[in-house]
Amino acid sequence: MKKFEEKTIQTETIYDGKVVKLQVDEVMLPDGNTSKRELIKHPGAVGVIPITPEQKIIFVEQYRKPLEKPLVEIPAGKLEDGEKPEVTARRELEEETGYTAGPLEFVTSFYTSPGFADELMYLYIADGLEPVKDPAIGDDDEFIELLELTLEEAKQYVQNNRIHDAKTNYAILYLETLEMCVQKGG
């Protein structure tokens, strides 16, 4: 057995829903003891950083039930079965903002909550935005409002906890780092 590997002995599916699956795994630990792991299985997701020609970032504000409050976030959504992340990014951009973009620039991918979930999120930048004549309709239960913020305004939203999720904070940090590199000439 590898140094930190936990070998799955048994898996019990507790819930298999539209977005996630909850399972409890019994595992053998590296020292030979056993333990239980509660796991969320997720198909993966994308986040999109839409940049307007005026160099503003388009955000969506929506109510997040687990938090019992609205958050301002970058457009994002889950991968559908067999869908490539870039296709999901384009779909979510259109559904949530009514825009399409030129070539998307892949930024990175990251695990959102590796302590209990396997969700892998892909992050893209979208510029060259153009309004879609007849945009795709989003989810029936999704109510969102668009905001266009400068990077400085977005950083203020972070300080005020209006932007308070990892993917959006990561996006803002990435843009801030990019801006600093441009200012330093590299």
UniProtKB/TrEMBL annotation:
Its cofactor is Mg(2+). GO terms for cellular component: cytosol. Residues 41-171 form the Nudix hydrolase domain. InterPro entries: Nudix_hydrolase, NUDIX_hydrolase-like_dom_sf, NUDIX_hydrolase_CS, NUDIX_hydrolase_dom. GO terms for molecular function: pyrophosphatase activity. GO terms for biological process: nucleoside phosphate metabolic process; ribose phosphate metabolic process. PANTHER family: NUDIX HYDROLASE DOMAIN-CONTAINING PROTEIN (PTHR11839:SF18), UDP/ADP-SUGAR PYROPHOSPHATASE (PTHR11839). Belongs to the Nudix hydrolase family. This is NUDIX hydrolase.
